[in-house]
């Protein structure tokens, strides 16, 4: 008859062996299976987000307005690793709460990276666009991390991204994933007044430093800046190139190029440690800011009807739409005839 203690001991050894085998299998899958990343691109409407994505994918096509949330993916095979990048583009920051959660829910926060694109040619909307994007990312990341078992590990990676020995670390409110703040349409921003450029650059540097983000100015018309942004997206997606920012530029007379953890409060200004409230106050004191509402017509005064755009054709949906339109026209005709008959009877 077997000793109960021996049976328990044997079972425990089996459990340990099973766990070790499972860990080895998971490690093998991690090493040989595809490495997946998600890049979420959001920001000012009409700033060129679709153009950036088309450039990354080598698409030679005219960009169409992004109506809601667009999805693309890229694959790359290395010497010993396969990579998959899920790329999401948010068309507009207004009323985007329901759409913004999709990239987070589908692929997990530990595999996220975000690019916030802001229109430098419209400085009066800089803060409203920046805060709208920031609040979307902060809200959903906080929700996910509240229930995540690996939240400590995720924040540890965030601290490593800006270096644990950074002198300002205790004063920062880091985002849990890489964020790159991109100032778009830099070719138009070049001609702005020096004082305006100074305050905008200080605002973006302060916001990036506070949240542990990187800052990069961009223009599709300037090949050097366009290539740097493309390399940056490739770095976020596939890890190559390892150093996409070829220079470190902090002068407001130049295109900003500041990698993660390479700025400090002392370098940004003499104002010292900043918060969201103080960054906003400093900007609005120098440059009047407007709210986002009511400017869509100004950005796209004659936005074409997507139902008539050949690029959005779907044969089944278009046929059903045509049938419903014909039914609606028939109902309108019948109602008009009934009304006409009533008026004639009254006469």
What does this entry show, briefly?
With 347 residues, the protein is an alpha/beta fold. The chain has two domains: 32-294, Rossmann fold (3-Layer(aba) Sandwich); 309-334.
Plain-language structure description:
Strands 2-3-1-4-5-6-7 form a 7-stranded mixed β-sheet, sandwiched between helices. Residues 1-9 have low confidence and may be disordered. The longest helix has 32 residues, at 315-346. The protein has helices at 4-32, 49-56, 97-107, 126-146, 151-162, 186-189, 194-211, 223-238, 265-268, 276-286, 296-299, 315-346, and strands spanning 34-43, 69-77, 82-90, 112-119, 179-184, 214-217, 257-258. It has 2 domains: 32-294, 3-Layer(aba) Sandwich (Rossmann fold); 309-334. Helices cover 49% and strands 14% of the residues. The chain is built from 12 helices and 7 strands. With 347 residues, it is an alpha/beta fold.
CATH class of the largest domain, anyone? Alpha Beta
SSE series: HEHEEHEHHEHHEHEHHHH
Instruction: Predict the CATH topology of the largest domain.
Output: Rossmann fold
What global shape is seen? globular
Radius of gyration: 26 Å
Oligomeric grouping of the chains: single chain
How would you state the average pLDDT, rounded? 84
The first-to-last residue Cα distance is 109 Å
CATH architecture heading of the largest domain: 3-Layer(aba) Sandwich
Largest sheet: 7 strands, mixed
**Structure summary, number of beta strands:** 7
GO molecular function, one term: dynein heavy chain binding
InterPro entries: DYNC2LI1, Dynein_light_int_chain, P-loop_NTPase
Organism: Stomoxys calcitrans (Stable fly)
Family: Belongs to the dynein light intermediate chain family.
């Amino acid at each position: 008859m077997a000793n109960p203690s021996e049976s328990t001991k044997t079972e425990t050894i089996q459990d340990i062996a099973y766990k070790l085998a499972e860990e080895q299998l998971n490690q093998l899958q991690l090493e040989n299976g595809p490495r997946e990343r998600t890049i979420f691109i959001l920001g000012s409407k009409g700033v060129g987000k679709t153009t950036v994505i088309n450039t990354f994918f080598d698409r030679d096509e005219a960009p169409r307005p992004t109506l809601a949330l667009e999805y693309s993916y890229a694959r790359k095979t290395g010497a010993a690793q396969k990579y998959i990048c899920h790329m999401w583009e948010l068309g507009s920051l207004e009323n985007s709460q329901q759409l913004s959660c999709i990239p987070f829910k589908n692929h997990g926060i530990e595999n996220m990276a975000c690019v916030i694109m802001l229109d430098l040619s419209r400085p009066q909307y800089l803060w409203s666009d920046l805060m709208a994007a920031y609040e979307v990312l902060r809200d959903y990341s906080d929700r996910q991390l509240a229930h995540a078992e690996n939240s400590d590990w995720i924040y540890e990676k965030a601290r490593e991204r800006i270096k644990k020995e950074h002198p300002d670390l205790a004063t920062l409110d880091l985002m849990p994933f890489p964020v790159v703040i991109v100032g778009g349409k830099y070719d138009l921003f070049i001609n702005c007044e020096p004082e305006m450029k100074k305050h905008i650059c200080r605002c973006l540097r302060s916001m990036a430093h506070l949240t542990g983000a990187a800052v990069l100015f961009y223009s599709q018309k300037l090949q050097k800046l366009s290539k740097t942004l493309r390399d940056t997206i490739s770095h976020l997606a596939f890890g190559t190139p390892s150093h996409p920012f070829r220079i470190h530029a902090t002068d407001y007379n130049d295109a900003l190029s500041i990698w993660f953890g390479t700025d400090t409060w002392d370098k940004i200004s003499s104002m010292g440690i900043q918060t969201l409230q103080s960054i906003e106050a400093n900007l609005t004191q120098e440059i009047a800011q407007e709210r986002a509402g009511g400017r869509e017509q100004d950005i796209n005064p004659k936005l074409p009807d997507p139902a008539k755009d050949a690029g959005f054709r779907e044969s089944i949906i278009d046929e059903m739409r045509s049938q419903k339109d014909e039914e609606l026209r028939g109902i309108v005709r019948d109602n008009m005839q009934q009304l006409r008959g009533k008026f004639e009877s009254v006469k």
